[in-house]
Amino acid sequence: MRHNKKEKAIVKSAKTISATKRERRFFRTGLLFASPWLIGFICFTIVPILLAFYYSFTDYNLFTSPTWVGLKNYIDMFHDPYVGLSLKNTLFMVLIGTPAELIVALCLALLLNQRKVFGLPVFRTIFYLPTLVPVVASAMLFMWVLNGNYGLINQILNLFGIDGPYWLNDPKWTKVSLIIMDTWRCGSAMIIFLAALRSVPASLYEAAEMDGAGGITRFFRITLPYISPTVEFNLLMGMISRFQYFSQAYVFASLTDTAGSIGGGPGNSMLFYCLYLYRQSFLFYKMGYACAMAILLFVIIMLATALTLRVSKRMVNYDVE
Amino acid sequence: MSKAATVKKSYYRRRRIRGRISHGFGIVMLIFCSFIFLLPLYWMVCTALKSEAYVFSVPPQWIPNPVVWNNFVRVFQRMDLLKYIKNTLILSICPVIGVLFSCPMVAYSLTKIPWKGPKYIFPVILATMMIPWQVTQIPMYTIWSRLGLVDTFVPLILPSFFGSAYYIYLIRQFMKSLPSSIMEAARIDGASDIKILYYIVYPMCKSILTTIAVLVFIAGWNDLNGPLLYLQSSSKYTLSIGLQMFRQAANPEWTLLMAASTIFTLPLIVIFFLCQNAFLNGIQTTSGLK
User: CATH no. for residue B245?
Assistant: First the structure.
């Protein structure tokens, strides 16, 4: 009896030892395999973020060491007319550019989702192709297509007797030009919509048809509620990427800049927030000020996301599937 | 035939006709829209093949006559296009290698190794995806410049070898659905985790890894912001920067610009046709629909 107890204890301790040993081994391999991310997280995320916070309270021009100025950069931002202007320009893209792209993408997806479309993959490819054109290449292309005198669009408008504007040189039309280009590149959003539309069960439409619901009713009562999570996803992605609007604006603005603008295109009409941030940091070398702007951008994106989620909560139907 | 039946019959006929009309209308719209979407692309190739003299003709010359293939030769003489292509290729292929090396490893640790880390690491990975790159951009620049690595490819390649939150997330979602029993069996047979990862998990993740390779390649090929910050000498320019500089330097020579843009776009279109499924899967995976 006694002997037996002892033996049991030994077996038990051996078991726990091997268990902790196993655990330790898993811990070691787990850590080893996660180490690339851990190192990257410290070097490329944590340290830069802390530095960005620090710089935002300093005057720093990259060549001399930063000097502490407290909240000056943040206060200056509120008095900087260009911050206001760039925010206004950015909001224009967020509030008008995003819905424009999504509506076109959804319409194309609906056209593709009809019953009996011959050559669906062909049409799908055609609508997706513009997305494949690199940003700079498509910017060059649209500078040519939207050229005031010889551009394709104005030549076509001429056929109908309309005198097209000087798209990229007229402050009133620059942002519209950008929206036209981005809407042309709506392929990804369209594919996402198309996949969502495919998931709507046909039985719902059949039932609605029996009840005599027309196409428009069916769209607003069945399709839209059913794909509302996808709409929300596309909306959020479109909005966030437009708060960070940069590449297209950089190419256009750098090439159409006029006197008296600070690198924001004609009349600073394309001075978007991130373009202004770039000019402040790598044109004027005000790194401290630019870091303060970047942190404000982070806050703005967070607030906008939270607001969108809150508003859409009432409209989005999450229990499909 | 009773009256009710004829009413019903005529009702169905009317609806069928209406259906056919609306279907026809839909097809017409589809063709019209695809015409509009193709037109700028056609215009790009069309301008690239025109003779300089006809570029500014009003009304426009719809079909290039004469067809000047020589534009595609001249553009290589006027720009250092070969060097740009080489640089762009380096900056799009190396990150693919980096991401395919680091991200599956981290995702494996997060899903298939029973340790306490994932509980803490995964939420942090999700959180880092929310941080806009503008926040870390300036401090990163100061760090790289202090290390003397500005105007080299290092700042644009090295980070990919340390994992990228978004791709780790995508691979993790995929790996989670793989059966753990296979890995446990391999472990009992004495296989090390590195062997399990490379001989068992990689082949099983082929589809998602192809998708991610395509996404990373395109991101590198298109990138304007990174090269704009870090590459200063013209021998290191990528296609994005080179094109921008060419346009900035002289009066626009549209034929050459459009030829260069066509060359810039072509590889992506070829990749698209080679791995269409990876593309479509990619878009749907990233949207959380899959």
Answer: 1.10.3720.10
Same domain, B106 and B171: yes
Least confident of A302-306, A316-320, B42-46, B125-129: A316-320
In terms of C-beta distances under 8 Å and separation of at least 24 residues, what long-range contacts does B158-161 make, across chains too? B158/B98, B159/A40, B159/A44, B159/B98, B160/B94, B160/B95, B160/B97, B160/B98, B160/B99, B160/B102, B160/B216, B161/A36, B161/B98, B161/B101, B161/B102
Last residue of a domain, one of B71, B97, B131: B71
Residue B1 pLDDT exceeds 80:
no
- Asked if the C-beta of A251 comes within 8 angstroms of chain B's C-beta atoms, the answer is yes
Kindly list the residues from chain A whose CB atom is less than 8 angstroms away from the CB atom of residue B114. Answer: 26
CB contact under 8 A, A127 and B124: no
Range of the domain at A40: 2-56
Q: How many domains does chain A have?
A: 2
Distances (CA, A) of B159 to A298, B97, B130: 22, 12, 18
CA distance A119 to B70: 35
- Residue B168 main-chain phi, psi, to 5 deg: -60, -45
Which positions in chain B touch A29 (Cβ < 8 Å)? 109, 113, 115, 193
Check whether residue A142 and residue A289 sit in a common domain. yes
d(CA B263, CA B260): 5
Domain final residue pick, B71, B99, B119: B71
Residues B163 and B41 in one domain: no
Residue A63 located in a structural domain: no
Question: Chain A, 67-96: which have a CB under 8 Å from a chain B CB?
Answer: none
- Domain range for B62: 3-71
Hey, are the CB atoms on A132 and B43 less than 8 Å from each other? no
Look at B41 and A130 and tell me if their CB atoms are within 8 Å: yes
pLDDT value, residue B290: 44
Same domain, yes or no: B67 and B79: no
Asked if the ipTM is above 0.90, the reply is no
Q: How close does chain B come to A119, measured CA to CA in Å?
A: 11
The token duo for B214 is: 């395509």
**What's the domain count of chain B?**
2
